[in-house]
Design brief:
The complex is a heterodimer.
Chain A lengths: L8 H10 L6 H18 L27
Chain B lengths: L9 H9 L5 H19 L2 E4 L1 H16 L11 E5 L26 H8 L3 E6 L33 H9 L5 E5 L5 H7 L2 E4 L19 E6 L2 H11 L29 E4 L1 H4 L8 H16 L3 E4 L8 H23 L6 H10 L4 H24 L2 E5 L24 H6 L3 E8 L5 E7 L5 H13 L11
Helix pairs in contact in B: 2-3, 5-6, 7-14, 10-11, 10-12
The chains are: A mainly alpha, B alpha/beta.
Chain lengths: 69, 465
């Protein structure tokens, strides 16, 4: 796992506790690689750059934007 | 009759039933017998409703005899994924959390199918809460792939795919959050159709992710998918995301003609050299695309740069929304969940507001780029899935780090997408081709799928069980 996505077991324990999850050492060791993988997968989303003038993003699944058929 | 009743399509059986040449009771009994013989091996069902199915079939037979024929689903035996609420029938979503859950009401989709005269054979196995692949820790049945019993049918509508493919029901309903209808269909050589977001009501269907979940039919043929969709589509005031778009008569619009249809293929996404993508699904899709050209379609390359955000955006929305739904119970009673859901929802507890908002922004960008692409072409096509059916003893499939999804972008954009049988690997494993279209343009999606299906033999092949 690249260093930027690695987390120590203690930091991971604190992170989980802040989210209400008090886990055993065994559970934390099991979850830590999955957490690190999730950060690696999610990272590209934070590289998205819409510039300074982007209007608010929206998602209205029931009414997709009008398109020419 | 040259083939057994359990291998008839809805189209074939309904024509016989309408002509009073086939009894719904005889047909239902054939599926129950087949299930009794094979389900100890295939594990497709969580619950078989044999007594009520036969009672419903007898009523259908009387109605038809008396001239009260309701239409092409009257007397047709189907089954539902076990996250569709069914009044008075155990509905577990494949989880010990709901091990004793017997709903008071039918979900809208089942109410519509029941109104159309279908017979319910039972509730089908599924990945826990429709998340990930088979997980032995849940204690629920784990379906085996009828094309190779050493393999599974992926997730999450795996029981629906196995039962439909092996002739344990004539058709089924699945749900799809990132590919859970089309992937199992691809693994089992059947048709899986996820229509436009809002096309089928989700009222009474147990959710995974509100903004990604879809309902859809899983069938042996494209005609059957059109018949099923016609029955379940339409506005439902009980589902705030349900669309009021008129419902066309899909079956009557099927034509085996795609001359001049423009089909775009984002080859930069499908055919790159990623190590997590197997070569066989790509080869099968390439052959199928050439067949579409032979049939008169214009196949061209298109670019959708934002596809690179599809997997991270789907991961954050699927697990983030799933965690929100399960948070209270997950913290209080984690032991009720299987290992896959427990681990994935716990990790999702660490997702940030920034993760979720960026995922929605990426989704907006994708929606915009897909609609721009669909201004220039009628459909987008490619392989349905990046791998063939996984081995039975492979580690349980998880949403985190499972590799590239070829289906999730259509859950993010809400566009209609169908998987159709398109060939086999040298080892005999099925593989599909996927067509996606403009919002609510199910007729064009079905037309292309139908034309391809009618020009090939893949859909006629049945598993060796």
């Amino acid at each position: 796992m690249p260093e930027e996505f690695a987390i120590s077991l203690e930091d991971f324990r604190v992170l989980m506790e802040r989210n209400g999850l008090r886990l055993t050492d065994e559970e934390l060791k099991h979850l830590k690689p999955l957490y690190e993988t999730s950060r690696k997968v999610i990272a590209p989303l934070h590289a998205l750059d819409f510039g300074e003038t982007e209007t608010a993003s929206f998602y209205n699944p029931a009414q997709p934007p009008k398109v020419q058929f | 009759m040259t083939k057994p009743l359990y291998h008839l399509t809805i189209g074939e059986a309904s024509r016989l039933i309408k002509a009073k040449k086939l009894s719904p009771v005889e047909l239902t009994q054939a599926f129950l017998d087949r299930t009794g013989k094979l389900d100890e091996t295939l594990h497709a069902y969580n619950t078989v409703t044999a007594d009520s199915a036969l009672a419903e079939a007898k009523i259908a037979e009387v109605e038809i005899t008396k001239g009260r024929y309701k239409g092409p689903l009257h007397g047709i035996p189907i089954a539902l994924k076990d996250n569709y609420n069914t009044k008075g029938i155990l509905t577990t979503a494949g989880s010990r959390v709901l091990a004793n859950n017997v709903p008071d009401e039918d979900c809208t989709a089942w109410a519509k199918l029941k109104g159309a005269g279908t017979i319910l054979l039972g509730k089908l196995a599924m990945s826990e809460y429709a998340c990930g692949g088979p997980d032995p820790e849940t204690g629920f049945p784990m379906p085996r792939n009828p094309w190779d019993l050493k393999r599974n049918a992926g997730g999450s509508s795996n029981g629906s795919a196995v039962a439909t493919s092996a002739g344990l029901c004539m058709a089924s309903m699945g749900t799809c959050t990132r590919g859970s209808i089309r992937a199992p269909a691809h693994f089992c050589n059947i048709v899986g159709f996820k229509p436009t977001y809002g096309r089928i009501s989700r009222n009474g269907v147990i959710p995974l992710s509100w903004t990604l979940d879809h309902c859809g039919p899983m069938t042996v043929t494209v005609e059957d998918a059109a018949i099923m969709l016609r029955a379940v589509a339409g506005h439902d005031s009980a589902d705030p995301t349900s669309s009021a778009e008129p419902v066309p008569d899909y079956p009557s619009m099927l034509k085996p003609d795609i001359k001049g249809l423009r089909i775009g293929v984002p080859r930069h996404f499908y055919f790159s050299d990623r190590s997590d993508v197997q070569r066989e699904p790509l080869r099968v899709a390439d052959v199928a695309l050439r067949k579409l050209e032979e049939l008169g379609a214009h196949v061209e390359e298109i670019e959708i740069p934002s596809l690179k955000y599809s997997d991270p955006a789907a991961l954050v929305l699927l697990l983030g929304e799933g965690f929100a739904y399960h948070q209270r119970r997950l913290l209080a009673q984690p032991e009720l969940y299987g290992g896959v859901d427990r681990a994935e929802f716990r990790v999702a507890a660490t997702f940030t507001l920034g993760d979720y908002v960026q995922a929605q922004r990426a989704r907006s960008l994708m929606q915009q780029e897909f609609l721009q692409a669909l201004d220039k072409v009628d459909l987008i096509a490619g392989p349905t899935f990046s791998v063939l059916a996984p081995l039975w003893d492979a580690p349980p499939g998880m949403a985190i780090g499972t590799g590239t999804s070829f289906t999730g972008m259509y859950n993010l954009t809400g566009l209609p997408a169908i998987s159709v049988p398109a060939g086999f690997s040298p080892s005999g494993l099925p593989s599909g081709i996927q067509f996606a279209g403009k919002p609510f343009d199910e007729p064009t999606v079905l037309r292309a799928a139908y034309a391809y299906e009618q020009a090939t033999e893949w859909h006629t092949m049945r598993p060796p069980v």
